[in-house]
Design a protein that fits this description.
alpha/beta; 3-stranded mixed β-sheet; globular; binds nicotinamide-adenine-dinucleotide; binds 2'deoxy-thymidine-5'-diphospho-alpha-D-glucose
Amino acid sequence: MKLLVTGGCGFIGSNFVRHYLEGHPDDTIVNLDLLTYCGNLENLRDLEGDERHRFVRGDIADRELIAELMRDIDLVVNFAAESHVDRSILDPSPFIHTNVLGTQVLLHAAKEAGVGKFVHVSTDEVYGDLGPEGYFTETTPLAPNSPYSASKAASDLLVRAYHRTFGLPAVITRCSNNYGPYQFPEKLIPLFITNAMADESLPIYGDGLNVRDWIYVIDHCRALEAVIDRGRPGEVYNIGADSERTNMEITKTILAELGKPESLMTFVKDRPGHDRRYAIDSSKIQSELGWQPAFPFAQAMKQTVAWYVENREWWQRVKSGAYRDYYEEQYGCR
Ligand code: NAD
Ligand code: DAU
């Protein structure tokens, strides 16, 4: 099979490309990525010279390029997105361009080319905010609260419409919060690990009691493989590993793992519109596609912290340059 993977130089996309090629030695991947601030070719340095992986720099909203690339593709996996909630609060525009327009351009080209399957990688954030009880199921109404999640919900609806109206064999996945190697250090876990390693403060939003449901990135990649193989067109599959933690719990785990003092924790002004709790019911993908998470939280978090300790050079390079300007804008006045 020949796959078009978009956003394959980002956090989840790069883990997916490596994981997928390990398990499918006869398949090839065209990796289309614009290399925005968080796209990093170094994430796939180990695939240099591997003919099964072809990198193309470009925008998923570029109609001509996408039509050209789509011609001999069997399957699309769409990771490309603006993915950070805080950035979407500072400037929603790129989120509309990539997440909404870009997805529509991909869908249209996939329909025209007659691709065999279109896997759209979405997020549990489209369901909005959960109260203290209950779980998101695939039938939970969409109620996004940030420009990021609103743009992802819009893209999900376009995927649904292309399936219903044009018969595009499209599947939507909605996963909970990922952690693991190569995550851009603007997201909670890599930001806090790398700040703690540098003895810098860890900026906890609000009271630190917001809850996220954490999944190791390779478990997400394994779930996507199951969807590629057996996912039914027109369906939505939630993906989660039943690992709810408050942000305070995550922070204390990181500090304990690194042997750093809790005095590094700093409470800062809350994120506007901050969702209180996410939690995923993943029974559908478990029963229908036979997927189950394989990486227990405690062990995979330990491994993740160790990866950032062992790969200081990777994140120090990422943290230099343009990232710093953003950091000042984001945290300077908090
Ligand atoms: P990321 O920000 O690390 O990577 C996004 C990638 O997309 C980058 O390589 C970037 O260069 C590329 N990109 C951005 N705009 C592009 C464009 N116009 N054309 C081509 N490439 C472009 O994101 P991530 O955390 O790896 O998330 C990947 C996908 O998974 C996103 O769609 C996100 O919504 C979804 N998701 C993420 C999580 C999570 O916890 N990180 C959870 C569930 C779903
Ligand atoms: O749920 C899936 C989503 O998870 C994905 O769709 C998004 O792409 C991904 O970014 C992530 O969104 P979150 O907003 O949940 O992740 P983030 O790492 O930004 O924040 C996690 C929690 O930590 C959230 O409650 C906000 C809090 N936080 C975050 C940062 C960056 C802090 O307290 N301090 C911080 O500096």
